[in-house]
Amino acid sequence: MYQFFSLQHNNAEFSLIIDDQMVQTSARTEYLGVLLDNGLIWTDHICKTVEKTKKGLGLIKRLAVAMWGSTHDILTF
Predict the structure, then answer these.
(1) What three-state secondary structure class fits 20?
(2) What is the pLDDT of residues 21-73, one digit of tens each?
(3) Using CA atoms, how far apart are residues 59 and 49, in angstroms rounded to an integer?
């Protein structure tokens, strides 16, 4: 698979052929934890990061209301 990056809205369509076989194109790719799309728009990556952060904050909130472990003051610095 390959991905074509461009900031232009009207890209010229092209196909990549290696050893007489057409290589498939990809609209989104994850590389080193960063979601990249063809237009270099960060919306997908930001949404994924927000969801991961919400899960972590939910865990911290559950720990804060528990009767054991760290106190609320320590968890909120």
Answers:
(1) coil
(2) 988 888 888 889 888 888 788 888 999 999 989 888 888 777 766 666 666 67
(3) 16
Residues 28 and 36: beta-carbon distance below 8 Å: yes
Q: Is the pLDDT of residue 11 over 70?
A: no
Amino acid (1-letter code) at residue 33: G
Strand 16-18 versus strand 28-31 pairing type: unpaired
**Domain extent listing, the chain:** 1-41, 42-77
DSSP state of 2: B
Taking every pair of C-alpha atoms in the chain, what is the biggest distance, in angstroms?
65
Of 38, 46, 44, 42, give the one whose Cα is nearest residue 7.
Answer: 38
